[in-house]
Amino acid sequence: xxxxxxxxxxxxxxxxxxxxxxxxxxxxxxxxxxxxxxxxxxxxxxxxxxxxxxxxxxxxxxxxxxxxxxxxxxxxxxxxxxxxxxxxxxxxxxxxxxxxxxxxxxxxxxxxxxxxxxxxxxxxxxxxxxxxxxxxxxxxxxxxxxxxxxxxxxxxxxxxxxxxxxxxxxxxxxxxxxxxxxxxxxxxxxxxxxxxxxxxxxxxxxxxxxxxxxxxxxxxxxxxxxxxxxxxxxxxxxxxxxxxxxxxxxxxxxxxxxxxxxxxxxxxxxxxxxxxxxxxxxxxxxxxxxxxxxxxxxxxxxxxxxxxxxxxxxxxxxxxxxxxxxxxxxxxxxxxxxxxxxxxxxxxxxxxxxxxxxxxxxxxxxxxxxxxxxxxxxxx
Length: 380
Fold this sequence. Notes:
Blueprint: H1 6-19, E1 26-38, E2 41-48, E3 51-57, H2 59-62, E4 74-85, E5 90-103, H3 105-120, E6 137-142, H4 147-159, E7 164-169, H5 177-193, E8 200-205, H6 210-213, H7 219-227, E9 232-236, H8 244-248, E10 251-252, H9 256-263, H10 267-327, H11 330-335, E11 340-343, E12 346-347, E13 359-364, E14 367-372
Helix pairs in contact: 4-9, 5-7
């Protein structure tokens, strides 16, 4: 048997697909998933419960299509042709027209669960627990091999060298993912209660299609997050993705990276702040001590000045008193030739107090003598 080349096979299949009139002008109904844009062109997957079909809306066709209809989770009817790509050995559906076909199954289920849990009050703010400012241990529930866990570890270790990271390897998409997430949320809470306390729990994964993120819209996952004693940060997909887990969690982070940043304090900046505050405190204390020293010196000088003034004033008063005492010292008067008349130790102040015939003591500067009053004469 003579072999053919890969190119020959692919070109043959591509030709058969192009020539098959049954694959031209098809109207296909399905749910939009993985919608993206590349330049003027749009790409998405159209799916139903059993299969998926890659679709493309080329820029030339997009101008005549209401692109608001093409949204993840929506059911639409597309009209177009099968477009084979021989070089890649694959094919896609080239869309020329789009019509609305009702709400997609994923979106319908999302809204059903959201409305149910909202009526039960699971989204109420009063149940939201605060995220600890300085956690000693952060639990992470995500895939151990995805980009999300590497981003989380990188951010936490770059910001904080004190917080431990406890990883719970978890299936985050596909069959069994909801059960895996619920089991690990329960496990994290048991570990925390057993003595290895977990302050904060990050639950999530990186970006993906709505099907990839579907586990985080599961009702059982929402109830497990709500029942967690540990505060939960939900970090599912990218900024534009929004899940039931985000609504029921204590805090929603736009991405796993944002969750890691939100979960821990920057200990390196904290040390810098502490060191700065320590230096400022020392400088302030020194300034206060210097101010107190200057104030004490000023008050000491003022007190000394006041005391010196009072001492000088007292000295002046004493000196004046000494002068008065000296001037009024009877001995000084006696030196001028004056004498004092006493009787029985009592001063006789005037002539009216003298009685003729009685004796009196006459005291002079250098002694005294006894004299009898012979006659009393009064002036005027």
